[in-house]
Design a protein that fits this description.
By secondary structure, the chain is mainly α. The chain contains 18 helices and no strands.
């Protein structure tokens, strides 16, 4: 019995030695050499680890043959390709040709180039390491330097890789469809350049330190609006009207609002287009409010929002409408969360409470005084029921129904809670 055990152990030992020997020989596939400390060869032991140490001697020999074949295929006669940071465009191109000959995908080669460029940039301009308690927001000068370096890197990559270095060439099918649809590579590349250029201009309008006065904020908003207008003009000059409409439906702020509000809701393409057109029209008619807002302006905006919600209800139907508004309207979302703990309160009743609260705020902004709380509390109990209404008044969302100390309310019921 002991001899049998010894034979088994001896066989395992011999097998392990053979496996290690073959693995050491096969450690530099595709002509990358055996530079164990280089960035390129550091990925090779991973394939051996994935095998879990169970690869046979025959498999190891096959890998060894594959390595020899790869070394011949790259035209280097087995000479290793050692990781090093290039200094000239010619050196980058030579590196790319070796990687292509070794069979590396173009996406991997581009990633290698980007890593080499980052490594070179860090060596030339090491980042200042600030203590954790100090400000880390980059200055305008630092942002400008980063933008310039990014542009230079992209230009070099496109020069070295040619057509394969264009941003459009490296997009997945999903990325193209989601942002650009059937646009050509030339137009996609031109669009990305426009977006990048104006993004840099727009970022320069943000304050980098301190706070802004209302006047400074309005001036910043006006400047950003002007930048956006100029960007749209450049895009419109590049695309046909139909292409522009399709592009905006994929990438504009109105499109983003609709997509965010839909979340898990299921809609058809026709429904999405209708929702997008509605949101776009609403945004154009009701620009964002900022600064000191008059009561008349605030009231008009509130009434416009309520009217827009009714359009949404007609487009989506009752059930999807409530889910949509819960994702797009913060006031309604907070109210819905507060009332969700009461099973008897339906989404329809919740939305009626939302409309009632909007009416109360409208009255307060117009009349500068508290509304008729007794009447509103009666309506609240009609919608929610006495018990749920009493509990709701104690929540942040329901405190606006609280009567002044010492007041009493006589509730006249006009219906049943929904």
């Amino acid at each position: 019995m002991k001899s049998a055990v010894l034979l088994v152990l001896l066989s395992l030992s011999l097998g392990a030695n053979v496996w290690l020997a073959l693995g050491d020989k096969a450690g530099a596939p595709l002509g990358l050499g055996s530079q164990r400390n280089s960035s390129l060869s550091s990925t090779q032991p991973q394939s051996q680890a994935e095998a879990g140490g169970q690869r046979s001697a025959a498999t190891g020999a096959a890998v060894e043959r594959g390595a020899a074949t790869g070394a011949q295929a790259d035209g280097t006669g087995g000479a290793p390709v050692v990781w090093q940071v290039a200094n000239t465009e010619a050196e980058y191109k030579a590196f790319v040709e070796k990687m292509k000959a070794a069979g590396f995908p173009i996406r991997v080669i581009r990633s290698m180039l980007q890593a080499m460029l980052r490594q070179k940039a860090e060596a030339e301009s090491p980042s200042e390491v600030r203590p954790y308690w100090q400000r880390t927001t980059p200055t305008k000068e630092e942002v400008a330097q980063r933008n310039a370096r990014s542009r230079a890197e992209q230009e070099l990559i496109e020069s070295v890789l040619g057509a394969d270095g264009r941003p459009s060439a490296l997009m997945t099918a999903e990325q193209r469809e989601r942002s650009f649809g059937p646009l050509s590579n030339d137009k996609i590349d031109a669009l990305l350049k426009i977006e990048r250029d104006y993004s840099e201009i727009r970022s320069s309008t943000y304050p980098r330190q301190g706070t802004t006065t209302p006047e400074e904020y309005r001036a910043m908003q006006e400047q950003r609006a002007l930048v956006d207008k100029e960007k749209l003009a450049d895009i419109a000059a590049l695309l046909t009207p139909a292409e522009l409409e399709a592009y905006q439906m994929r990438t504009s702020e109105a499109s983003y609002k609709v997509s965010r509000a839909l979340q898990d809701l299921t809609v058809t393409e026709a429904e999405f287009k209708r929702l997008y057109q509605m949101q776009k029209a609403f945004d154009e008619a009701n620009p964002s409010l900022s600064g000191n807002i008059s009561s008349e302006t605030w009231s008009r905006r509130l009434n416009a929002q309520l009217a827009y919600n009714e359009q949404l209800r007609g487009a989506l139907g009752e059930e999807r409408f409530y889910n949509y508004v819960a994702s797009s309207d913060q006031q309604y979302a907070m109210l819905a969360r507060s009332l969700a703990q009461y099973p008897s309160v339906t989404p329809a009743a919740t939305y009626q409470v939302y409309q009632m609260q909007a009416q109360m705020r409208n009255e307060m902004s117009q009349n500068k005084q508290r509304p008729d709380l007794e009447s509103y509390n009666a309506r609240l109990e009609t919608l929610l029921g006495a018990e749920a209404a009493a509990a709701f008044r104690k929540t942040p969302a329901g405190r606006m129904y609280t009567l002044p100390t010492g007041s009493t309310t006589t509730v006249i019921r006009t219906g049943t809670g929904g």
